[in-house]
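To close the chapter, one final illustration. This time we ask the reader to focus less on the individual chains and more on the assembly as a whole: which components sit near each other, and how the overall shape emerges from the parts.
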Amino acid sequence: MRVSLFFLFAVTFCALAQQNDGLKYIQYDTDVISPAEYKMRRDSVMKMIGLDAAAVFYSSPERMRNGDVDYLYRQADNFYYLTGFTEPNAMLVLSPKGIRVKVNDSTLITTNEALFVQSKNLQAEAWTGRRYGTDGAMQMIGVQTALNNERFKSVFQQVMYSGIKYLYAQPVTSDVTGPLKDLLSPIISYVDNAKRYNSKIELRDPNAMVHTMRIIKSKPEIAMLRKASEISAIAHNQAMSSVEPGMFEYEVQALYEYAFQRQGSEYNGYPCINGSAENSVILHYNTNRKKINSGDIVLSDCAAEYHGYSSDVTRSYPASGKFTKEQKEIYQIVLNAQKAAMAQIKPGIAWNDVSAVADSVIAEGLFSLGIIKKKEGMGFKKFYNHGLGHPVGLNVHDVGQSVLATGMAYTVEPGIYIPETSDGVDPKYFNIGIRVEDVIVVTETGNENLSAGSPREIAEIEALMKKKGIGNQPLK
Ligand code: GLY
Ligand code: MN
Ligand code: MN
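The assembled structure is written out below.
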């Protein structure tokens, strides 16, 4: 009897300790976006969908790399935007009218939002990391209700019988496999059956609605973009100071990634692009295996992600530390185009009009060097084969709109790329690829360059490259 009482006490105590350990040993970052902001976002969605609707969002699937190895897990943009929750196998249900759920054996509550999370499981956690569990998730996210994800199926049924007219459910894409696919099976079978039986509940995709919310960045979001951009600018400065002929492109990549992670970035915003000479003309080159020779231009398009928000910064610099005459000529046109475009950016201007300004600087410049034979028309596009930029945010290529408004964040990234296959161009310009890319945020009066901590002027770059950086220490 004494043993069993003790056992009961121990089990109860452990269960309580397990429930209450909440954020302990999981949430180490203190500069995350507040639960109140996530709550505001979920409330906005509920307002938009209205009382006769419910919405379901879900996390990113875990993706296999090979065998027992998964790709590094990264949360889905829209799910993260609404929750800040970084674990896999999670779903969010929003019900403006409210649903009744059991939170324990004796308590039934009405809730407008339920987050479904992986249950605490010490055995699984010993392998793959600590989980928030329901209590931890409620504390961290400030969501009204968190439930074990096994309960999604029954709550989903309840939602479907709650008299709603519209179900806003993210389409379950074909890359969803494994446990997440099983968890989402009620949605999958509803969608199949809805088509077959002409369901009265209209199915809608909530992604566009959340994308609209993400266009204008809040102050805390801009703080994240600023941090990601400052980290990236310092990494570019270290790379420019360290690079020297004889290094390999992957060594330059390593410098960026070291500098990102040393400053607390969890991921690259996208794979590092470190192309020298013939590789500098490939827009998204990321093989990064070539040896860098004296005389090569190095184009590095590398940026950090910080708490979900990605920067996007490119610098182009000479391996030797001094631009050749031809590299200088091309570089100056690109930089002039970037500056002219940035000078236009303010609320109310159309992005196409900003782009047109950069286009004409590039066309004029290429014409003056004899690289194109006439400045009118689209001839310049052969050497500037991408757009001026794109919105940045939770995705490096984020959601946006055609007319700029205060709080939008954009890259400004003109470039000129002259492969050695360019007919009719003086070979002295071959294998020069230059892009200059910064992240700006639109302010009430114009814009602010968040990555200005890394220099762009030719003289400043050459001065920086005279210094030694962290990459000049031999590894032994
Ligand atoms: N880093 C990819 C891009 O500039 O769009
Ligand atoms: Mn970009
Ligand atoms: Mn880029």
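The chain is about 35% helix and 20% strand. The two ends are 64 Å apart (CA to CA). With these observations in hand, you are ready for the problems at the end of the chapter.
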